[in-house]
């Protein structure tokens, strides 16, 4: 997409606005499947928590993707978007037995990540095929909040508890059809990923009726020029060879599953916001925009960096700005960032805004959530309208009788 296209969309749909480039999502999907083309059975489960707009789910379904859901509501969204139950994989954490049973009754593959629920479910439903999430105790990921495979993580069943796990399976006679792991996000070291894969292979040898192995995801994407990213092609080459060798050893062609979220949609996303005010203080020039961490919380939550461009005047002389929001707390998107000279009314574009951006938006300060648009075949399509005051009031129940009596 070009800057003029983004400016046009901001004028057409207003700001703040999320825009997603369909072509980038499609090319990322193809890049991943091409990297693992030597695997006989490959399945991609898009981690829809990254961006769950129904139009995006439909676009990925057309690419051939399945879904990874972490809540029953995500499962329902997937079904609404046209996915069949067997195309959805349920990987929750810390949910109740009742939620797992309800999703299982829909015909969706469930993934259980703790011994307590595993034993309860296996006792009640021994004939329902189950996947088990293993915690490999491998530290990976670009931030503590997104590193989920280490020893202190709440996710998964410790690989050191494998004997206990096997005993539960034997006692309940339940059928284990898959083993799953996810070490974390922003993985750079392929050797760490391959090391964790060996732990998964070792665990898989304890189960004789497996149909698939799910290696999670966590592939890093570049956030700025010349940034480091996961070498998907190298990983595909090395892991494909090792996976195929394991299948031969296991005596069966298993399905290799990945559940990418950020990798597929992050670089396709742009967040557009208008500059409300340029404020000079004794030491800083602030560019205050018509948004805040209610719309884009990642820089404050993860310390993530989103490249910011002034698309209204991309060729202007660069100056240093601190880009801040309008929330009544400190919500700083960037400190002392070099950006083309900013004037009030300009549109700023935040890159890499496709993953975990709108999906983590809120109504803090009673602000509306922004609109979303999809750039498809050279045209902009509104795929979510900006909220209205009526949306804020929806589901709120006033007490008119109490007010009247007083």
Which descriptors apply to this entry?
globular, 13 helices, pyridoxal phosphate binding, amino-acid biosynthesis, alpha/beta, TIM Barrel, Lyase, Ornithine Decarboxylase, Chain A, domain 1, De-COase2_C, nine-stranded mixed sheet, 406 residues, decarboxylase
Can you give a write-up of this model?
Helix content is about 30%, strand content about 25%. It is an alpha/beta fold and about 400 residues long. The protein folds into two domains: about 240 residues, Alanine racemase (TIM Barrel), CATH 3.20.20; about 110 residues, Lyase, Ornithine Decarboxylase, Chain A, domain 1. The strands form two sheets. Strands 1, 11, 12, 13, 14, 15, 16, 17 and 18 form a nine-stranded mixed β-sheet that branches. An eight-stranded parallel β-barrel has the order 2-3-4-5-6-8-9-10, surrounded by five helices. Helix 8 links the parallel strand 8 and strand 9. About 5% of the residues have low confidence.
CATH class of the largest domain: Alpha Beta
Q: Say how many strands there are.
A: 18
Residues in β-strands, percent = 15-25%
The global form is globular
Percent of residues in helices comes to 25-40%
Mind describing the biggest β-sheet?
Answer: 9 strands, mixed
CATH superfamily of the largest domain: Alanine racemase
* CATH level 3 topology of the largest domain: TIM Barrel
Uncertain runs with pLDDT below 50, 5 residues or more? 140-150
The domain tally reads: 2
Structural class: alpha/beta
N- to C-terminal separation?
58 Å
Please report the number of helical segments. 13
Q: CATH architecture of the largest domain, please?
A: Alpha-Beta Barrel
Radius of gyration based on Cα positions: 23 Å
* Residue-averaged pLDDT: 92
Protein name: Diaminopimelate decarboxylase
Function: Specifically catalyzes the decarboxylation of meso-diaminopimelate (meso-DAP) to L-lysine.
Pfam family, one: Orn_Arg_deC_N
EC number: 4.1.1.20
């Amino acid at each position: 997409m070009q800057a003029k296209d983004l400016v046009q969309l901001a004028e057409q749909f207003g700001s703040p606005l999320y825009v997603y480039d369909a072509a980038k999502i499609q090319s990322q999907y193809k890049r991943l499947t091409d990297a693992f083309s030597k695997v006989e059975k490959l399945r991609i489960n898009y981690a829809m928590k990254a961006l769950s707009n129904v139009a995006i789910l439909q676009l990925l379904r057309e690419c051939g993707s399945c879904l990874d859901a972490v809540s029953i509501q995500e499962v329902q969204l997937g079904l609404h978007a046209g996915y069949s139950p067997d195309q959805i994989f349920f990987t929750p954490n810390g949910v109740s037995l009742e939620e797992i049973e309800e999703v299982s009754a829909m015909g969706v593959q469930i993934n259980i990540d703790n011994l307590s629920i595993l034993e309860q479910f296996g006792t009640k439903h021994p004939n329902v095929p189950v996947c088990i999430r293993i915690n490999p105790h491998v530290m990976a990921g670009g931030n503590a909040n997104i590193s989920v495979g280490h020893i202190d993580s709440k996710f998964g069943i410790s690989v050191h508890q494998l004997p206990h796990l096997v005993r539960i399976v034997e006692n309940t006679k339940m059928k284990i059809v898959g083993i799953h792991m996810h070490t974390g996000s922003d993985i750079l070291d392929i050797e760490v990923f391959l090391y964790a894969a060996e732990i998964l292979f070792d665990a898989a040898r304890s189960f004789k009726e497996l149909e698939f192995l799910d290696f999670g995801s966590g592939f890093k994407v570049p956030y700025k020029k010349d940034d480091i990213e996961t070498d998907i092609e190298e990983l595909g080459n090395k892991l494909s060879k090792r996976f195929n060798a394991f299948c031969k050893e296991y005596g069966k062609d298993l399905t290799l599953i990945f559940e990418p979220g950020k990798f597929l949609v992050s670089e396709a996303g742009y967040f557009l916001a208008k500059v409300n005010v340029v404020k000079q203080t004794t030491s800083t020039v602030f560019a205050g925009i018509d948004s805040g961490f209610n719309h884009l919380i990642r820089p404050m939550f993860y310390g993530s960096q989103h490249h910011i461009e002034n698309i209204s005047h991309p060729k202007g002389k660069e100056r240093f700005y601190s880009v801040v929001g309008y929330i009544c707390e400190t919500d700083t998107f960037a400190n002392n960032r070099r950006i083309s000279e900013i004037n009030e009314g300009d549109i700023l574009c935040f890159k890499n805004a496709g993953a975990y951006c709108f999906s983590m938006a809120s109504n803090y300060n009673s602000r509306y959530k922004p609109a979303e648009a999809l750039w498809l075949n050279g045209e902009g399509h509104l795929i979510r309208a900006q909220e209205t005051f009526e949306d804020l009031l929806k589901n709120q129940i006033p007490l008119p009788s109490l007010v009247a009596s007083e």
